[in-house]
Specification:
The complex is a heterodimer of chains A (346) and B (296).
Chain A lengths: L16 E12 L8 E13 L4 E5 L6 H8 L7 E6 L2 E2 L7 H7 E4 L13 H11 L4 H14 L4 H4 L9 H13 L5 E5 L7 H18 L2 E5 L3 H7 L2 E6 L2 E7 H6 L4 H8 L50 E2 L9 E2 L17
Parallel strand pairs in A: 3-8, 3-9, 6-7, 7-8
Antiparallel strand pairs in A: 1-2, 1-4, 4-5, 9-10, 10-12, 11-12
Chain B lengths: L20 H11 L1 H18 L1 H4 L32 H37 L1 H16 L2 H12 L3 H28 L2 H8 L4 H37 L11 H7 L8 H28 L5
Helix pairs in contact in B: 1-11, 2-4, 2-11, 4-5, 4-7, 4-9, 5-7, 6-7, 7-9, 8-9, 9-10, 9-11, 10-11
Classes of the chains: A alpha/beta (346), B mainly alpha (296).
């Protein structure tokens, strides 16, 4: 285990992970002679994950949330894009992919599919550390310690197989497996979405405790807005492979700048009868990502769309003083001089 | 890098251990009556082949021309005699040796080579997969009997050449099964998680892929044993495999075919042995398949 890398190289102000221009287009089979169509799953995404924060990522199915997560881990090779981990470029002579993967780990949605059915719980958890050179004995000890930490008694669970555990228990094992490499960033890709509500709450609380104890940073991907709001310091909203808005959780949820985020947050189920969900704010399915709309990708469903929206691509810019400099949105209404009637003239 | 042995026996004794995978397979298999009977038959055939010299009532090679083609139940010939007056029972017992050898050896060789090829192609994917699998498809396009005969004929007669050509015939189907199973397993989240841990490809295949693909490939391979026996019989008939007077069921069936009108029951005996052996192997592999289904 290389303890050589200082734990906090760039200081607290250095973002833990900077993502620049991440692109992934998947080729889909076209007709025999026709050109291959491309699904623009992730189409130029930039964001930063700050040290010690939880960045929530929300969006409809198919907007590229999970693809982004897999691109970050290089489980799928990105077509373009740069990753900078604590000030060091990943690959290209900087941080090696192997070392990067030790620092960044991931918990998947399907707790059953993400555990090898033939391995015992302790063998699954101990696998990662052994790959990185920890002796078998110590790796198993570490696995037992982590099982204890995630609330599973090692003397009862270490020798079990995944099919003998419940969904919540399996997801705890997956979290322990991810933590076994002592990562600094944990990507939680819909990690609690498949669990029962009561179990989900327990696992969320466990995640909050672990974050504090190990000084972790989370990238929390979910379609459940209430859960994201509960977990996140900042929230990123994705639409059709692009970032629509990113900013502090309170600002995005209460003063959404992008019409899409505004529509999403309005559709959040509320327990408060005075703030009940009134109408379905956006109609229809998202457009086909094989042939996304020109200009702003949301203009086909946006209530404020004007002709300029179908021609001009909005940039991800600060939305003005009330949101603060860390609150960015990609909407022409917030772009001075864009030509949209609601935008300030430049 | 000392990797822990991933199995039930690697567990420290203080840990409450649950039933290991193979123990649970055995428990489910034991409840399957058909598979257990088939397994007992297979075991009996193997024992019969191993101890053939000690249990045969007569010399399988010496015949008496005056007592040719005696019916079943004749004094001194419990299962009759063949066209050269040799004791059928002794020849059937001895025949198990060669028939099992011809049935099992090519499948073992093809299992080793075919599954290696298929697993590598399935795990790597991409151009390697395309080249390997399309090459295999060329072999697969030939009817297996024709391919076996052509290869045997090209290599020349003899037991070794027959085994080699049968092995080649079985590599393509096993490789295809191995490739498709591996392609499925490769995309499971636990393989992704292993890649995300930074493990090299070889380690991932060894720890996470092999255990999950060898079972289905093995079950498929056992179902080929009966096919191999039948193909081997065909080769022997053409003079490309086992040579007379060596007793082998396929060869015996073919030499006795002229006697089918005079002694149909005697002539049918080697066929019955092939049938019993192949159906036992098939039922046993069927039972294994369901016992190995881990999600029960």
């Amino acid at each position: 285990m290389s303890a050589a890398a200082p734990l906090d190289r760039g200081g607290p102000a250095q973002p833990l992970l900077t993502v620049r221009g991440l692109v992934k287009h998947f080729a889909v089979k076209g007709s025999l002679f026709g050109a291959k169509a491309m699904v623009r799953a992730v189409d130029g995404v930039d964001f930063e994950i700050l040290k010690g924060e939880t960045l929530g990522v929300v969006g409809e199915s198919g907007c590229g949330k999970s693809t982004t997560a897999r691109l970050l881990m290089h489980l799928i090779e990105p077509d373009a894009g740069t990753l900078i981990f604590d000030g060091e470029t990943v690959g290209d002579g900087g941080l090696t992919m192997r070392e990067f993967r030790r620092q960044v780990q991931m918990v998947f949605q399907d707790s059953y599919a993400s555990l090898n059915p033939r391995l015992t719980v302790e063998a699954s958890i101990a696998f990662g550390p052994q790959v990185h050179g920890v002796q078998a004995r110590q790796a198993v000890d570490r696995a037992h310690g982590l099982l204890d930490r995630v609330g599973l008694d090692p003397s009862r669970f270490a020798g079990r197989y995944p099919h003998e555990l419940s969904g919540g228990q399996r997801q705890r094992v997956n979290i322990a497996r991810a933590l076994a490499l002592q990562p600094r960033l944990l990507i939680l890709d819909e990690a609690v979405s498949a669990l029962d509500k009561s179990v989900e709450a327990q696992v969320l609380n466990l995640l909050l405790d672990l974050k504090e104890e190990f000084g972790l940073t989370y990238l929390f991907i979910s379609h459940d807005l209430n859960v994201v709001r509960f977990m996140s310091d900042r929230v990123a909203v994705m639409y059709l492979g692009k970032m629509a808005e990113i900013g502090p959780a309170g600002a995005v949820f209460d003063k959404a700048a992008h019409p899409y985020s505004a529509a999403l947050t309005r559709s959040m189920p509320s327990m408060d009868p005075d703030h009940r969900t009134e109408e379905a704010p956006i109609a229809g399915d998202p457009p086909n990502p094989i042939n996304p709309p020109t200009g702003c990708r949301f203009h086909t469903r946006c209530t404020f769309a004007e002709s300029v929206c179908s021609t001009r691509v909005p940039a991800l810019d600060p939305v003005g003083p009330e949101g603060g400099p860390s609150h960015l949105a990609a909407c022409l209404m917030h772009e001075p001089g864009s030509g949209h009637s609601k935008a300030e003239a430049s | 890098m000392a990797l822990l042995r991933f199995g039930a026996d690697a567990m420290p004794s203080a840990i409450e251990s649950s039933e290991g995978y193979w123990a649970s397979v055995w428990r489910r298999l034991r409840r399957d009556k058909v598979a257990m009977i088939a397994g007992a038959v297979v075991l009996a055939l193997i024992l019969m082949a191993v101890f053939a010299p000690y249990i045969v009532p007569a010399d399988p090679f010496s015949g008496r021309m005056l007592r040719r083609l005696r019916p079943i139940g004749t004094e001194g010939y419990p299962l009759g005699s063949d066209e050269l007056g040799r004791d059928m029972l002794s020849r059937l017992i001895y025949g198990a040796r060669m028939s099992l050898l011809m049935g099992v050896t090519p499948v073992i060789i093809a299992f080793g080579l075919g599954s290696t090829l298929g697993i590598v192609a399935g795990y790597l994917g991409g151009w390697f997969n395309t080249i390997a699998m399309r090459t295999i498809d060329i072999f697969y396009a030939f009817p297996s009997v024709l391919l076996a005969v052509a290869l045997s004929g090209a290599l020349g007669a003899g037991l070794t050449n027959a085994l080699v050509s049968l092995s080649v015939v079985f590599i393509p189907p096993i490789a295809r099964v191995a490739e498709s199973v591996t392609t499925q397993v490769r995309n499971r989240d636990y393989v992704e998680a292993a890649r995300a841990s930074g493990a090299p490809g070889f380690t991932i295949v060894r720890v996470h892929v092999l255990g999950n693909v060898l079972g289905p490939i093995f079950v498929y391979a056992t179902s080929l044993i009966s096919v191999s026996m039948i193909l081997a019989s065909g080769l022997s008939f053409l003079g490309l495999g086992v040579r007379p007077p060596e007793p082998e069921w396929g060869l015996m069936l073919n030499t006795l075919r002229t006697a089918i009108y005079t002694q149909p029951w005697v002539a049918a005996l080697p066929g019955a042995m092939i049938f019993i052996t192949s159906i036992s192997f098939n039922l046993l592999s069927d039972g294994l398949r369901s016992a190995m289904d881990v999600k029960q």
